[in-house]
Amino acid sequence: MGRLIDISWPALGVTVVAELNDERNPELCEEFWQHLPFKVLQAHPVVSGASMYAWTPVVSSAPVHHRELITDCPVGRLRYSQSTGNKMSVQYGVGLEPLAQPVLGQVLPEYCALLPDVGKAVWNNLFWQKDQIFVEVSPHDKNAHPGVPVKAAGISPVAKIFLDEAERIQLVEPEDLKDIRLGRVESTGTYGQYYTAWDFANGMVRDYIMYTIYPLLKLSNTLSVKDFSATLNEFDVPYSSYLGISGMYQLEAFAGLLRDAVAQAETKAEIQELLVAFLKYGNRLCAWSYHYFPWYLGMFYNRQLGGQEFPGRWNPDKV
Predict the structure, then answer these.
(1) Which residue ranges form the domains of the chain, and what is each CATH number?
(2) What is the pTM of this model?
């Protein structure tokens, strides 16, 4: 039997118990277990159907032996996507994407009936309500866990800067992102409107952190230290400089610190320490940017299919 964890949504008054997939993905589950407990913003996918996910404070590179298609996942399945932001997903209904993801565990059968109501509440919140719903994940048996993770001793000063900021914004929206969504960045957005600048920044930070920096972390195992520094410069600057123009000034400054520190690194281990710390910071940006993005604009692009809920303009009386 795998180790048990509690998954709680205090704002919704719901806690479920799940079993980790220790037998088939032992390395992944151990890495996840070592970072418990944690509390992060709860999100919901906008394209892959009835599941919930959350960006964890973990950057996992553990080997994966057991994957499952999202379309085949039963209610209660826990997935862990390393390559799309280190997100933990909880399935509560039908999945839509035929993509295989690592299996983290399974909510115990007696709790699965609670999940659809939680999932629907999280969807409504992400899509239009925009409250802050947090999920808390902790060991079910508190005596069986080593305790809150401690920052590694001897970590580089630059990596510590990234980790400290990641910790600061874990439960608080970053100021730069708030300025972007409120239209306070006056230097971007053609003819005074700022939605397009917000849209570009939201997509760009996702692609930068999740689909560029994380793959570079994986690539760092195969490139020499010198070659990696040149590769990072080539990939990083177009992203970080544009995001700086968009209003993400701290991200642009941190990216400069990352490039300089990688250029001075002497070992792959030093580079990977920096990348992991930067990813922990960047994943928090992705979580907040995703949460506040105005997905409710999608109500104007609704397909009239069975079970669709937003036929035209939003009308809360019809929910």
Answers:
(1) 4-146 (2.40.100.20), 157-295 (no CATH)
(2) 0.94
